[in-house]
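REVIEWER CHECKLIST
Item 1: Sequence provided? yes
Item 2: Single chain? yes
Item 3: Sequence as submitted:
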Amino acid sequence: MRRAVGYLRYDTDEELRIMNKLYDVLDLYINFFLPSMKLLEKTRIGSKVIKKYDKPETPYRRIIDSDAVSEEVKEKLRKTYEELNPLSLKRQIDKITQELSRAYDKKMKEREKKTQKTDVKLPNDFPLSQNNFVYNLNEATK
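Item 4: Structure as written out by the authors:
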């Protein structure tokens, strides 16, 4: 999920709704169309670790090839697969990601307006300004 949305802080109800929508589409895209390599074995020879992987396959293909899954479930997955279009899913992902970005920008602009309204005006001779700090530091060390 982080690859799709990045590491920004999404904490509003609108962003949550958009992320849930994105997750639903990403789930289909990743499980039906993106192959992954499954780790078969890992052996350690001294400090070196040798990993052996299976050939890349999609999670969908692994389930279809599995004997542990019932034919009923496999048939349901086949129907879902036939209805999907990877290009359409990718376009949906891009569109939803842009929607999430706009919602984040909107939230940040609203927060910026709130902080501008509540900022306390400090006098020019406020002792924590950088110039006053340096001046006071010089005076203290004399």
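Item 5: Key structural point noted by reviewer: The chain has a mean pLDDT of 85.
Item 6: Recommendation: ____
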